[in-house]
Amino acid sequence: MRAPKNMLVTGGCGFIGSAFVRFLLRAQGSVARVVNLDLLTYAANPDNVAEYATDPRYVLVQGDIGDQALVARLCEEHAIDTIVHFAAESHVDRSILGPLVFVETNVVGTVKLLEVVRARPGLHFHHVSTDEVYGSLGPEGLFTETTRYQPNSPYAASKAASDHLVRAYAHTYGLSVTLSNCSNNYGPYQFPEKLVPLMILNMLEQKPLPVYGDGLNVRDWLHVDDHAEAIWAIVTRGARGETYNVGGRSERTNLDLLRMLIDEVARQTGTSADGLGALMRFVADRPGHDRRYAIDCDRIERELGFTPRHDLAGGIAATVRWYLENGGWIERVRSGAYRQWIEANYGDRDARAA
Ligand code: NAD
Ligand code: TDX
């Protein structure tokens, strides 16, 4: 059993990292310090943790995971005992358009963090990864922790490479690590380039709903707050050197998920589901689009007693409600005002996201 006290969270202004930071500061009284190291790229939004901005336990540092001197200094200054590593370029479509930054951040950035950890063998390092490293399934079967790696997109390949490097550092240098490979997350504060928020926001603005290919690709959906809890279970109770798959046992085709979203937006806004459905457009498929992901999450259930709290219908209803009730957040994301906030507070040092 590990008892993290002073934690460094990378990418804690992104979608999942911020859910984890909120979870720590809300629910884990034993945690004394949370240092959030985030480069504040286009995907980041400090508003995601605004409710804790003045919490004495919380520090936000704008910086690059690749800056070894900075990471080493933060570890020293805050007596960090645990790093939870979320920071990444995370969007598959962007990786198809421009793979290099994915290698730079996800692969080289992770190795640089590992180099800092290598000099501090007492530290525990948790690496957050994705089910996409396993490639694509046919109609049957599930990804287990021993499924062969077969990444298909530049994003998935960069995450696969980072997983291998974490494991290799643990094996070669005896580092204390854990890893998790999770399915698709949904929930509040997700940047609206990903399927769920993109569709909700487009419906609210009566914009087209772009469905890639035939819409029959399958994803397994997990609420982001359940992911945060799963990571805490692994960080505190997971076996050293081991990987845990995390999923929601909620497989849906993209079309089925979109229908759920349409029905929910229609119900909550009192508009016609048929009218929203008419916004659907079948568009060109994503190149190399993986057909199906599905997770066998038996291990984390059996060994760590973790099961998700949210069922998909309830989680989607709450997520739609959040986007309806948080027009200010959406407005800032849409208008770019939050970028001005970053520039005013930190200066525009995010050259790589330009
Ligand atoms: P996100 O794109 O919302 O956030 C990524 C964060 O990392 C941003 O705040 C960004 O500013 C930061 N970042 C990027 N490059 C950085 C750098 N060089 N130094 C410091 N910070 C940097 O991503 P997300 O959806 O929250 O994903 C978080 C992690 O979870 C990623 O590692 C991703 O691969 C993994 N994951 C995501 C999903 C999903 O469904 N979104 C599922 C499984 C695993
Ligand atoms: O406009 C769209 N239309 C569409 O049909 C978008 C953005 C997506 N899609 C499809 C592609 C996928 O089959 O919806 C599915 C989900 O797409 P994304 O939200 O882009 O997620 P995905 O590609 O599955 O990857 C996500 O889950 C695994 C995250 O972005 C990754 O970071 C995570 O590792």
TrEMBL record:
Enzyme Commission designation: 4.2.1.46
Catalytic reactions on record: dTDP-alpha-D-glucose = dTDP-4-dehydro-6-deoxy-alpha-D-glucose + H2O
Domain NAD(P)-binding stretches: 8-317
InterPro entries: dTDP_Gluc_deHydtase, NAD(P)-bd_dom, NAD(P)-bd_dom_sf, Sc_DH/Rdtase_CS
Obligatory cofactor(s): NAD(+)
Keyword annotations of the record: Lyase, NAD
Superkingdom of source: Bacteria
UniProt cross-references to CDD domains, sorted A to Z: dTDP_GD_SDR_e
Pfam families to which the protein is assigned, alphabetical: GDP_Man_Dehyd
One GO BP annotation of this record: nucleotide-sugar metabolic process
Gene3D superfamilies: NAD(P)-binding Rossmann-like Domain, UDP-galactose 4-epimerase, domain 1
GO function terms (MF aspect): dTDP-glucose 4,6-dehydratase activity
Entry's family note: Belongs to the NAD(P)-dependent epimerase/dehydratase family. dTDP-glucose dehydratase subfamily.
Stored PANTHER family: DTDP-D-GLUCOSE 4,6-DEHYDRATASE-RELATED (PTHR43000)
Protein name as catalogued: dTDP-glucose 4,6-dehydratase
Species of provenance: Chondromyces crocatus
